[in-house]
Amino acid sequence: MATHFVIDGLKAAIDGKEILKGINLEIKGGEIHAIMGPNGTGKSTLASALMGHPKYEVTEGSAQLNGEDLLEMEVDERARAGLFLAMQYPSEIPGVTNSDFLRSALNARREEGNEISLIKFIRQMEGKMKELEMNPEFAHRYLNEGFSGGEKKRNEILQMMLLDPKIVVLDEIDSGLDIDALRIVSNGVNAMRSEERGFLIITHYQRLLNYIKPDYVHVMMQGRIVKSGGPELAERLENEGYDWVKEELGIVDETVGQA
Amino acid sequence: MSTQLSTPTDRQSAEALARSKGEPNWLVELRGEAAELAGTIGWPKPEKVRIERWNLTAVGSYEQPTAVKAISELPEIVRELVSEGTENLLVQRNSGSVWKQLSTGLANKGVIFTDLETACKEHGELVQKYLFQAIAKDEDKLTALNAALWNGGVFVYVPKNVEVELPLQAILYNDNSESTFAPHILIVADSHSRVTYVDCVVSEPGTAAAPFVHPSIVEVFVKPGAHVRFGSIHSMGETGVDMTIRRAIIENDGQMEWIIGDLNDGNTLSDTKSILKGQGSTSDAKVISVGKNAQQNSLTTQAVHFGKNSDSNMVTRAVMKDSASAIINGITKIEHGATKANGVQTEKVLMLSPKARGDANPILLIDEDDVTAGHAASVGQVNPEQVYYLMSRGISKQDAERLIIYGFLAPVVSEIPVEAVRGQLQRLLERKLEG
């Protein structure tokens, strides 16, 4: 089945404060959507609410992936249904090696008794690590512990490549990356482009979009998508900033939920 | 019912028992004095745990051991612990040794590995030089009780410059709560020798349902340049009270490693101390514990630095379930004159239930200026951010928590030197964490 992801009227709150004020978005397999916007406009909240971060409460709306509402599911079920979020700040988990973690994640998608063989797993993992120019020793390091910002981001992309999701959300994947790492991470994402998979890229720099060409660009302000367009919109934002959007829409303060 | 006495033993019966076993006079005397002391001095007083409220009197009575002819005669709980193909194994059942074996290669090099009772008879002079020299019999009621009653036990002697490649293994088990189960383990590693010793202390579940006490002492002497690795897993049933005091005296450039798994189901007092007497001596202690039900655990690690350039590291990790509690004390003491000493300690408790209790008390006592020391302590619950992260990759909540808990214990588990014991520790951990 071709991937079809529909976010409909999504509202979410943190500590009782509404941050997302009704998000509507449709992503089909093969499409890359970018969400841009200044800090504090709700972009990362959208990513966290979709994945089911315990701090965010969804108050209204749905997010259907191929007809199933992800928001009705537990976090792990959303992942197994095909959602992947590359996080802005991945957790560090001492004592759990990267490879044990990855194998557990792969096996969570398989029936008991049908676990991936160790050899096959290692071959897959090492192949993808090579593509991402990761030092093989990272397989045996504890998950994200002591990783630099760039290493963590690469590790997120490694997980994406191994888990083969249907919908990928990249939350500020470009922050903290130097040009080389940005190129490697972008190559990893581009290699995963397929008709079966949709992408939602959250960023506030146009820089990333030079490497990963979006089909659609959306601007988020005050917890809503306020403007949508094609790749040319991203370029204009890069050149002229966000002020013209605010002016056009009569927005004074673009942020949401700030104290 | 077990023997319940307000004073667990007296001079007369301790001496009579010692004589009936044909123990040398010096030992009969030691036991008599200790029995008398046990009636007059108090129990140890660890921080925030009142052990005198535990059932400490069920010391039982002596049970004559019957040797087995083959390992296959030992019960399942013992056999599954035996390191495959080992030639160096000692087994104590209740009050005495029932199996002992040492490879001829090691015996020819002068290595002694036997039960302590036999050693007192066959190597009396050597044993007398060390027995109750690291831990005095009159420190408290526990040490006195062990001195009066100890039985079976283990004696290891490694001569100068001898390196024992394969681990020496002991298994000490209790399947009769009415018998006295009070091992004393004495290890002497002579200059520039090297040895790994591993033991497991277990009780047969079901049959040991009545209360029993395991008052146990471990003394280790690390002579100049020697290296001792000591691994120990305790996994006794919930009716047992485990009180184990371990102490090493480390001379110049000696190295001591402790790896302790306190996985009993009953109340546990565990105190592991290194005395860094010599220059350049080092000690590394790693302790893990898992508590469940209403179990109380008092876990102490200590390092006392006398030697210049001595170095100590102590790590304790405890996971507490249900309403179990762990009071963890880490004491690093650096004496005046121990210049350039370095002492580091970390205590961490992970609580899996709102009723579980954990307390980490790092203590640094430093009487010398020219030293380095550090400590870290934390007490907390499983981090929900970590659970969320793992779940976001499709891992179930239960498996996510499991990974985090095992990861928390990994720094100690991965260090267990004998594979069979490491495997057993994994099994015991799983049983305790998931049972």
From TrEMBL, chain A:
Family membership noted in the UniProt record: Belongs to the ABC transporter superfamily. Ycf16 family.
The organism's place on the tree of life at top rank: Bacteria
PROSITE patterns with a match to the protein in the record: ABC_TRANSPORTER_1, ABC_TRANSPORTER_2
Organism annotation: Paenibacillus prosopidis
The protein's name in its UniProt record: Fe-S cluster assembly ATP-binding protein
Stored Gene3D superfamilies: P-loop containing nucleotide triphosphate hydrolases
PANTHER family hit by this protein: ABC TRANSPORTER I FAMILY MEMBER 6, CHLOROPLASTIC (PTHR43204)
Key words of the record: ATP-binding, Nucleotide-binding
InterPro entries cross-referenced by the UniProt entry: AAA+_ATPase, ABC_transporter-like_ATP-bd, ABC_transporter-like_CS, FeS-cluster_ATPase_SufC, P-loop_NTPase
GO molecular function: ATP binding; ATP hydrolysis activity
Residue stretches making up the ABC transporter domain: 5-247
SUPFAM superfamilies given in the database record: P-loop containing nucleoside triphosphate hydrolases
UniProtKB/TrEMBL annotation, chain B:
Domain SUF system FeS cluster assembly SufBD N-terminal: 101-169
Polar residues composition-biased segments: 1-11
Residue ranges annotated for the SUF system FeS cluster assembly SufBD core domain, each copy included: 176-408
Region ranges (Disordered): 1-20
InterPro entries: Fe-S_cluster_assembly_SufBD, SUF_FeS_clus_asmbl_SufBD_core, SUF_FeS_clus_asmbl_SufBD_sf, SUF_FeS_clus_asmbl_SufD, SufBD_N
Pfam families referenced in this protein's UniProt entry, alphabetically: SUFBD_core, SufBD_N
Listed GO biological process terms: iron-sulfur cluster assembly
Family: Belongs to the iron-sulfur cluster assembly SufBD family.
Protein name listed in UniProt: Fe-S cluster assembly protein SufD
Protein source organism: Paenibacillus prosopidis
